Amino acid sequence: MFKDLIFVDGTSKYVQIADHITKLIEDGMLIEGTKLPSSRELSSILGVGRNTIVEAYGILEEKEFVETLKGKGTFVLGNKIKMKSNWHIDWNTKTNRYAEIAEQLDIVKSEDKWKHGMISFKSISPPGELFDMEEFKRAFLNRISIEEHKILNYGYAIGYRPFLQYLNSYMIEKGACSKNKDIIVTNGFTEGLDMLLSAFTKPGDYILCENPTHNTALKIMKTHELNIIGVDMMEDGLDIDDLEKKIKDRNIKFAYLIPSYHNPTGVVMSISKRNKAYNILRENNIPIIEDGFNEELIYESSHAIPLTTIDGENNGVIYLGSYSKILFPGLRIGWIYGDKRAIEILESVKRCRNIHTSFLDQGILYEFLKSGAFEKYIKKVRRVYKEKYEFTKECIEKNIKEAEIWGEGGLHMFLKIKGIDTRQLLRVCYEKGVIFMPGDVFYINREENSTLRLGFTRLSYEEIEKGIKIIKEALETIKKQQNCGKM
Ligand SMILES: Cc1ncc(COP(=O)(O)O)c(C=O)c1O
Description:
Layout: H1 13-26, H2 39-46, H3 50-62, E1 66-69, E2 73-76, H4 97-104, H5 107-110, E3 119-120, H6 133-147, H7 161-173, E4 181-186, H8 188-200, E5 206-211, H9 215-223, E6 227-234, E7 237-238, H10 240-247, E8 252-257, H11 271-283, E9 288-291, H12 307-311, E10 317-322, E11 334-339, H13 340-354, H14 359-370, H15 373-399, E12 404-406, E13 412-416, H16 422-431, E14 434-435, E15 437-438, E16 451-455, H17 461-486
Parallel strand pairs: 3-14, 5-6, 5-8, 8-9, 9-10
Antiparallel strand pairs: 1-2, 4-11, 6-7, 10-11, 12-13, 13-16, 15-16
Helix pairs in contact: 1-3, 2-3, 4-9, 6-14, 8-9, 8-13, 15-17, 16-17
Pyridoxal-5'-phosphate (PLP) binds near residues 124, 263, 322 and 324.
């Protein structure tokens, strides 16, 4: 910057230096508060005597471009920096279809926000107070002292090797057959699904899913411009007749299913339905994306087997796992388990996107998992969630008798209230300090408006009771309004 100055004949050097620095300040190349080089340093850079620099700085000081603080140096003042030219880009005109859909469907932006003091049934995150922080700190220190600098360097796209080995054994424990299967670590389920759809689908392809389903999954399918075919849900999982009807005469690329503690309904698909659904999809050559995000939370110790286990040595099921709901959402760690070749393709997709998921995070998580702290934590949260689930259910049964309660547990339950627009219910509840997730956001075309999802795990018993009573009052208000409308 200073070296750019080329002296010309006919003007004193100190004037040329002052002019050069003036221009740098006016152009914003030297910002307010920047310390200028000392006279000794600048004289050596420019090959002039120190006095020349002292005189140049004197001019700048007189014009109030700089100030000299005794013993500290010479600093640029802000008052002479010219405003940048008026350059304004309208970023709305630059977006592509992906961004338009992503923003349109971004419920974090569009839904009513929680305000301090409100009772929120919206969240289905684990309550942080249950995290074993001491063990987590130990895991961090242990892993970093074992790996030292290596864990802070670049690693493999598929993941941190000890963690991959852990996950492989974990999948075998679930009964999965590891022959010709592989694993890749992802930034949560969300990245896993996005990677899969990026690698194996193109706009216009058909994808089948439960309707309702996980809102983020719907958003990802829509950003990939897929044709989404919804299959109705029953209280024990997919409506098999509807599944058969919907796949008929259609070339469906994938089926995305959440067999356990389905979001939003909380339904656990029965074993017989798992088998039926699997066989129908296999016979029709439709690969399954199985979302196993919540299955560890099953309140009973034994769990219905995942579809990937039913798949055995076949390769038609790709299983997506995540530590977001069963442990730490903020670590953003999940995995994809499936056919070796499919994972090999996904490895290149991952490298293309973000090279790999943080090795430090994977390393800490691995250390935490192998310490046995995870099993202890799961045992604890299952008990806590079960008690809260039963309490919430009791409160609803007592106060909102007309509600049909769906779901067997996990982190949430789903209500259907015939004849009630739950958006309207939410508006009334919001005024009274309660929020929940209106069910329409989980339907492919937002076509159903009489359902809602209640997350209960982060609320105290008092809040649950108070919140349900407020929903009851809001319902009464709406019914009165409906009755008045009829008169
Ligand atoms: C059905 C389903 N799958 C997976 C996840 C976890 O997603 P992620 O791992 O990206 O946090 C969630 C979170 O709400 C979910 O509801």
